[in-house]
Amino acid sequence: MKPKLNLIVLGLACLALIATAGYAITEKSLVPRISGAASSPVNAPKGFAIGMMDEYCTSQERNSALVTPGGSVMATDDNTKNPDCAAIFFDPGEVGSIAIGSSIYNEDFRIGLATAERGSGCTSERTAVAWTPWVSSGGGSTKNVVPKDRKKTPDCLWLYYQTRPLPAGIVINDVRVGIKVGKGRVEYTPSARNSGGSSEYSQLINKPKRNAPELSLSPSRLYLQAKLTKQRQR
What we know:
This protein has 234 residues and is of the alpha+beta class. The chain is built from two helices and twelve strands, in the order H-E-E-E-E-E-H-E-E-E-E-E-E-E. The protein is 14% helix and 32% strand. The N terminus is likely disordered.
């Protein structure tokens, strides 16, 4: 009887071990795994850039460098002459896994825009910077940016980026940016929590009419949209 009893005990122990292992595997699978992403706020987005094209958005594409906090970059097309279309690129940093309800950024920021002509490295006739509101206020748009000589078609756009301390009690839940040029519509990037990226080209025309007038980037405008929560201060 003892050998049979030992076999029964051993069998029950094996079943218990299998059941325990199964429970552990099931419980483990409920825990989400996100690798290579931040779980706490980063200071501010890594940067922004502008892409441009000509010939009704069919050729001469060029992307600007990435503008980082406190800087500015110039954007134009390959031949630096009267681009037709523009898109904006947004690098939010690794914020996708930050808990909902927690701020994705520790700093406040805004972006700005100016136009210029191609002379002297796209600095000729550069306009004053038009800024969006700060993200801590919910964002918004710049005013329309037009050349100093309103009859001219802009050759270049300048993109600016500023940061400052985030006001107390402001939680930045999500952000996206947009651009509008000429008679095109506003085109937005994916949001920060969706990894950002590039917008579509504003003023993209699938098939221009014969003898259609040349397109112009004027007026140009940037958009900064944010989802915020204001916390009560103790």
